[in-house]
Amino acid sequence: MRILVSNDDGIASKGLQALVEAVSPLAEVWVVAPETEQSAASHALSLHRPLRVREQRPRWFAVDGTPADCVYMAVHHLMKDELPRLVVSGINHGPNLADDVIYSGTVAAAMEAVLLGLPAVAFSLVSRRQFDFEHAARFAGALAQAALKNPLPPRTLLNVNVPSHGPPEGYQVTRLGRHHYKGEVAELTDPRGRSYYWLGGSGYEHESAPGTDVTAVHDHRRISITPLQLDLTEHQLLDTLRGWNLEGFSQVS
Ligand code: MN
Questions:
Q1: Ligand 1 center to residue 48 CA distance, Å?
Q2: 56: CA distance to ligand 1 center in Å?
Q3: Ligand 1 midpoint to CA 38 (Å)
Q4: Which among 49, 119, 228, 241 has most CB atoms closer than 10 A?
Q5: pTM of the model
Q6: Superfamily, domain 2-178+208-242
Q7: DSSP-derived secondary structure letter, 175
Q8: CA of residue 236 to ligand 1 center, whole Å
Q9: pLDDT bracket for residue 202 (50, 70, 90)
Q10: pLDDT tens sequence across 142-156
Q11: What tens digit of pLDDT does each residue of 225-244 get?
């Protein structure tokens, strides 16, 4: 039985190594991961340039592409003779809470696996510096074992965030919460006198609400497990939208 490990921080990252060690007792581990850091790459696929794959050692492949490229490459090419029973992504160096899941390459690797019909779990360590993966790795091993025993419904994945700096206070099954980053664009000047820009501010706050991932992790130091589905349809808006009148076009129902 095979498990595929990928990530978005790159094949040399400590978090990936910790995840590999955590799931090694469960199955034959294959690693297909980006050659370089791809955080916030989201679900990009490299369709307009060639990709290189470097086999670093048996069953360890570095791809000069995105996390979604790696899972696509693994499933459609490298592992096609015997597909993995489970795909795990991470352990990310940093949180993937609330809206982070839209930008996350870690989550995208798991999402690509799910799109290709394989169960998947994304793991992230909620820290900005000093990454100690001990507790996150132990939990990843336990959850991977459970995910192998308990089938997940199709088109769903699990998103896990583990608090850092000491042992967590248990785990909680959650929904996505809300948080806000202070949006900023820094404008600087290059040596030739032209402007360049740097996206991203440093301010952060989350909304405290029971049952959410941000509250479980930030307020209670719990590990959060959030099931995510791929269907983004807002069903409650369907009828409202049908009530719109678009001049010159007839609506078909
Ligand atoms: Mn990352």
A1: 23
A2: 21
A3: 7
A4: 119
A5: 0.95
A6: Survival protein SurE-like phosphatase/nucleotidase (3.40.1210.10)
A7: B
A8: 34
A9: confident
A10: 999 999 999 999 999
A11: 999 999 999 999 999 999 99
